């Protein structure tokens, strides 16, 4: 049985968004959906992380609104109850660690708790949503919604699971710009979607150059910024995302492409083993 997932902005403006996951990206996703005066509920299992997520939104939201000169502050709450988070939600975005053994059962829980008509989007950065759909009764309601690093990088890749309702995809492509985001449709299933396929090659080669002792992270970042006129380099970006997340993604690519260099994953693992995960632990390739 399938539902209807075609909405206008006016249809959903006063309905909640549920963000499942209160980590680095979950809280940033919640931030963007809080820019048009609506309600956003963040679900997280740990109270400490829930509190950090709502504090982040409270601190950053005024500047985002001032920079956009559009919108109004919404209400952002956090809860340890999926039922509470999903109550009357028009959209549920999952942003939990990049491991199918976590995502698959979680989507089953979300499916049981969500109202009919709720759109499901996974923020997975490397897995197609069809791989986590086995416990979802209506697979036409699920798609990939890959956010980059809002509010600084507001691109979103939207990708069908092969069965996703066309009206759902059109809804997201139409409605997301109202929240200051820029959706791009991935028109064919692609591991890494659009940009991450390109970014993975840059990131992997940068790590290989360091693993081989050719250059230091700061040398690569420095040249990258000068050559491309950007404000951050690959190693700064990896520290921002989290080296544990970077390794999870690279392991996924390696499972599909066994020829990829192991030295890259070994380098990341050495930092993780030393407790250096990036900004979130105060040190990664750089100290913070």
TrEMBL record:
The 3-hydroxyacyl-CoA dehydrogenase C-terminal domain, residue ranges: 192-288
Biological process per Gene Ontology, one example term: fatty acid metabolic process
Gene Ontology terms, MF aspect: NAD+ binding; oxidoreductase activity, acting on the CH-OH group of donors, NAD or NADP as acceptor
Keywords: Oxidoreductase
Domain 3-hydroxyacyl-CoA dehydrogenase NAD binding: 17-188
UniProt-annotated site: Important for catalytic activity, residues: 146
Annotated metabolic or biological route of this protein: Lipid metabolism; butanoate metabolism
Gene3D superfamilies linked to this entry: N-(1-d-carboxylethyl)-l-norvaline Dehydrogenase, domain 2, NAD(P)-binding Rossmann-like Domain
Keyword Glycoprotein: no
InterPro entries registered for this protein in UniProt: 3-OHacyl-CoA_DH, 3-OHacyl-CoA_DH_NAD-bd, 3HC_DH_C, 6-PGluconate_DH-like_C_sf, 6PGD_dom2, NAD(P)-bd_dom_sf
UniProt similarity note: Belongs to the 3-hydroxyacyl-CoA dehydrogenase family.
PANTHER family in alphabetical order: 3-HYDROXYACYL-COA DEHYDROGENASE, 3-HYDROXYACYL-COA DEHYDROGENASE FAMILY PROTEIN
Protein name, as recorded: 3-hydroxybutyryl-CoA dehydrogenase FadB3
Source organism of this protein record: Mycobacterium lentiflavum
